[in-house]
Design goal:
Blueprint (H helix, E strand, L loop, with lengths): L5 E7 L1 E2 L5 H13 L6 E3 L14 H4 L6 H13 L2 E13 L2 E11 L5 E6 L10 H4 L7 E5 L2 E5 L8 H9 L4 E5 L7 H15 L2 E5 L2 E4 L2 E2 L5 E3 L5 E4 L6 E7 L1 H10 L10
Parallel strand pairs: 1-3, 2-11, 3-4, 8-9, 9-10
Antiparallel strand pairs: 1-15, 4-5, 5-6, 7-8, 10-13, 11-12, 13-14
Helix pairs in contact: 1-3
């Protein structure tokens, strides 16, 4: 991480229903390995099966040490990057049986698993993910050299209280992988900027291209700074890599020069 800055790259991977999960996993690993000049690489939500491919969740579920985790661990190690590997459908064993979670995984440049975040807010209004998956319980942060990341996933973006909790845990960059539909693309861009402005933190919003079970994706992956300025953004929903430099010192400067966070009354 050069001069205290963090070079972050978002891989807006395309989801093609005609591509096998195995082929997409190998392609994603290759894309990660291609980001050797970056410090942090981020993949989108449920890029293996598709965020709206509800019928595939059970068959596509994996344990935390499943094939996607193994492939992403190896890719992070080979590229020597911190990798937020997006999310997978996790099958977890409990005393009462099994449960599915929408689970994000973060790997260190050594390929070690550094963090696990189970999505707290499940989308669907009593359908889809909301009925098929269990909810995570705790906000999660992970400390990189020089900057702490706060983890959220897609629908979480609509719940500012989660991001406040992450900010209170010293997150300076908020990472949001998503499978956000094109019909609500304006909400995606608006809410990502709002979370950056109100928390005075970087937001790394990584979406998918292509379609998930026939649902066109918004794309529009973006890196937004603590003042709400967009540093880099995918102009469309094609497969792209979006890259920008994060400066932890700038977060401190914005919070010092315009200290709104200290005026909070309700906590």
């Amino acid at each position: 991480m050069d001069g205290g800055t963090v070079r972050a790259s978002l891989i807006q991977i395309g989801v093609d229903p005609d591509e096998t999960v195995e082929a997409r996993r190998a392609r994603a690993a290759s894309l990660v390995r291609g980001q050797t000049g970056s410090d942090l690489v981020v993949l989108p939500e449920l890029w293996t099966v598709g965020a709206f491919a509800f019928d595939s969740f059970e068959a596509g579920a994996e344990p935390l040490d499943g094939p996607t985790a193994l492939a992403m661990s190896e890719a992070a190690r080979e590229a020597r990057v911190w990798l937020h590997a997006g999310s997978v459908v996790e099958r977890a064993e409990h005393a009462g049986g099994t449960a599915l979670y929408n689970t994000s995984l973060v790997f260190s440049p050594d390929g070690e698993r550094a963090a696990v975040y189970r999505k707290i807010h499940r989308f669907g209004f009593d359908r889809g993910e909301a009925t098929l998956m269990s909810a995570g319980a705790e906000p999660v942060t992970v400390a990189l050299p020089g900057i702490t990341l706060g983890l959220a996933t897609c629908y979480d973006l609509r719940f500012p209280e989660l991001f406040r909790a992450l900010t209170d845990a010293d997150a300076r960059a908020l990472v949001v992988p998503a499978g956000w539909p094109a019909r609500r693309a304006s909400h995606w861009s608006l809410l990502a900027r709002a979370r950056a402005v109100e928390n005075q933190a970087y937001v790394l919003a990584c979406g998918t291209a292509g379609t998930h079970a026939g649902v066109p994706q918004a794309g529009r992956s973006a890196i937004i700074d603590p003042w709400g300025e967009t540093l880099a953004e995918a102009p469309d929903a094609e497969e792209r890599v979006v890259t920008a430099e994060l400066d932890p010192a700038y977060v401190a400067k914005v919070r010092e020069d315009f200290p709104v966070l200290r005026d909070r009354v309700l906590r």
